[in-house]
Structure formats: structure tokens, C-alpha cells
Write a structure and sequence with these properties.
This protein is α/β, with parallel strands linked by helices and 338 residues long. Helices cover 49% and strands 16% of the residues. The chain has helices spanning 7-14, 18-27, 46-64, 86-99, 116-120, 138-141, 156-163, 166-179, 196-204, 216-231, 248-266, 280-287, 292-295, 300-315, 325-337, and strands at residues 4-5, 36-38, 41-45, 73-78, 104-109, 143-144, 150-152, 185-190, 207-212, 238-245, 271-277. The longest helix has 19 residues, at 46-64. The chain starts with a strand and ends with a helix.
């Protein structure tokens, strides 16, 4: 029968995170040896360790091998001000979409407060700046995060766009374009506010999600950002998500107020695609450096986020995209320096 392993022993033996093991167990359980019950505890068999390692190798290979037929769907998550839960939503949307069968990747494009890796509990070896300093391939910049999602650290790598040579800028943007071939969905966590870098990422995206809260300044700042996008003739789907609401009624009021302002003053349609009620689970998961969808899958905020991911996947068809979102970004950068 061999050695019997607790989950902690299995983590140590395989080098995989517990969340990843749990994910593989739920997705590929039919390929794993049955657990053994001893007393009140279920143990993994020694052969299960090898099985998990093989599953991980196959799963990781899917992310690393580009699909030259199409580009990923690029969804930007943004807000007019900080502190509205934007980064947590971006990360957990990726986890939810991965669970729904999509290869999901998060690009941390927050210039000053890059923190996706902290929320995910990982330490990336590289960030985007390494694309213009080394001969690394984009696949080497993708760090595998919880439940198999891909994470690309940005931060100062995005800032480097402003100070790099034309050749370096092209190299970086070519890398971003290649990144789109390594996933089905790319979630871009932008910085908050109306900086030029934020607007360029939003203009490049296939869709934009505005994260709102009941705070009046959140609405005002989000409207200012929407107005800036409108002035640049953004013509792709726009969505709102209301976070930190105390009730469904409050969430609906916030979403309707924002949509009415957009329609009345800008002639812009923005659809509400979901809400997240205030939930202490978010803070507890952040302290543990674990996505809240993994920390407590049955919490209100986890169920709300899964509903948002499901609605997003149903809102657009899965036709293979022939055009790169980040090629649009490259065109925007080129226009800005002419």
C-alpha cells in the first residue's frame, strides 16, 4: 500500500500549493487513486503524489504552449479611486473563470500599488520589465498562481513604457501580444484613477469593468474616468460591478445611478453585471494571502464573484479572436509619441 500522506505531507512531497492540489482533485478526481480512511481522517496514497505531479505538468503545459489560432479575450478591471476592491475582484474573477473551464491569466498593470502577487500568496521571479532587459520568453514571465491561473507581474514594467527606447517598447508590447495566446481570458488589473497609462490599457481592452462602491466619491471618480474614455471614442462593452454594498437594494441604486449618469450626460450605455455584498471574508482571506474564493468558497462574496464570472462568460461568444488587444495598445503608444 505504501506510505499514507496527509494534505500537508502531500504539499511537501509534490511542491504544489494546497489550493492547487484541491483544484486538481476536484477537476481530475477520476484519474487519482482513491483516498484511504483511517479513523476520522482521509489520507492520500503515495502513488497520488506522482499522479498530482503528472497532472500539474500537463496543466502547466497548456498555459505555456501558445495557441496561434487566436488571441485571448482581454477584460480590464478599473476604478476611479483606490480602495474599492478592484484587485481582489480581478484575482478572484480569474480563479472563478478557471473553475468554469477557461484558462485565465491576470496581468497586474497597477503602476504604483502592484499587489496581485501578495493577494495570491506567490512571489514571481520576473515581471514585465524583464522582457526588455533580458531574452526571456513571455511564457517564463507567467507565474502559476492559485488553482492554476497565470499571473504576470507588471508594476514598474509598465512604467518602463514611458522611458524605454522605441525598440524596447516594441519588444515589451510584442511580449504582451504573445501573452494573449497563452490563455482564454486575460484579466487586466489597472491602476485606479485617470492616468494616461490607465486610459491606454482601457482603450486596448475588449471590455471594461468599472468597480463602484456606495461611496459618492467612487461614483464621481468613476464617472470622470468613463468621460475620459468616451472622449477617446471607446466603442466596446462597458460593465459595472458594485462592491461593498450592504444590501441588494443599495447595490441596485448605485448601479442605476451610474448607468443613468452615463446615458444622460454622455449617451453611453453601461450594463451592471453583478454586485458583491460587504463580507468579512475578504479581509480574512487577504490576511492569509489567499483568494477569497479559495479561503471560503461558500461565502457571500465568493458566490457573488462566481455569478459575475458566469455572466461575463455568457455575455460574449467564444469565437476565436483574430485581433490582438495589445496590438491596439501598441498603436495607441505609437500615436502618443508621434
Amino acid at each position: 500500500m505504501g506510505e499514507m500522506l496527509t494534505i500537508e505531507a502531500l504539499v511537501a512531497k509534490t511542491g504544489l500549493e494546497e489550493s492547487l492540489i484541491r483544484y486538481y482533485e476536484s477537476e481530475y478526481g477520476q484519474h487519482l487513486p482513491e483516498k484511504i480512511l483511517r479513523g476520522d481522517t482521509l489520507f492520500f496514497t503515495e502513488t497520488a503524489a506522482d499522479a498530482f505531479i503528472k497532472i500539474h505538468a500537463r496543466h502547466a503545459g497548456k498555459m505555456e504552449e501558445p495557441d496561434n489560432r487566436r488571441y485571448a479575450r482581454v477584460i480590464a478591471v478599473t476604478s476611479g479611486k483606490g480602495g474599492v476592491g478592484k484587485s481582489n475582484l480581478a484575482l478572484n474573477l480569474a480563479v472563478a473563470m478557471q473553475r468554469l473551464g477557461k484558462m485565465a491569466l491576470v496581468l497586474d498593470a497597477d503602476l504604483g500599488m502592484a499587489n496581485i502577487h501578495l493577494l495570491a500568496g506567490i512571489q514571481p521571479a520576473y515581471s514585465l520589465k524583464d522582457l526588455i532587459r533580458t531574452d526571456l520568453e513571455i511564457s517564463e514571465l507567467i507565474t502559476q498562481g492559485p488553482e492554476g491561473i497565470g499571473i504576470v507581474a507588471g508594476g514598474s514594467g509598465i512604467i518602463a513604457l514611458a522611458d524605454s527606447t522605441a525598440m524596447q517598447r516594441r519588444q515589451l508590447l510584442d511580449g504582451l501580444e504573445q501573452m494573449e495566446r497563452h490563455a482564454d481570458v486575460v484579466i487586466v488589473d489597472t491602476a485606479a484613477g485617470m492616468g494616461a497609462g490607465v486610459r491606454d490599457f482601457l482603450m486596448a481592452a475588449d471590455e471594461v469593468i468599472f468597480v463602484l462602491t456606495p461611496d459618492i466619491t467612487s461614483l464621481a471618480d468613476a464617472y470622470g474616468l468613463l468621460k475620459a474614455l468616451h472622449s477617446r471614442n471607446f466603442d466596446r462593452p462597458l460593465y459595472s460591478v458594485v462592491n461593498m454594498a450592504t444590501s441588494l437594494k443599495q447595490a441596485a441604486e448605485v448601479a442605476i445611478r451610474f448607468a443613468n449618469c452615463a446615458q444622460q450626460f454622455l449617451g453611453v450605455s453601461i450594463s451592471n453585471i453583478g454586485y458583491m455584498l460587504r463580507d468579512a471574508t475578504v479581509g480574512a482571506a487577504t490576511v492569509r494571502r489567499t483568494p477569497y474564493l479559495i479561503f471560503d468558497p461558500q461565502s457571500k462574496v465568493s458566490r457573488n464573484t462566481t455569478a459575475i464570472a458566469t455572466a461575463l462568460l455568457q455575455s460574449q461568444d467564444d469565437t476565436l479572436r483574430q485581433n490582438s488587444a495589445f496590438r491596439r495598445f501598441q498603436n495607441l503608444i505609437r500615436e502618443s509619441v508621434v
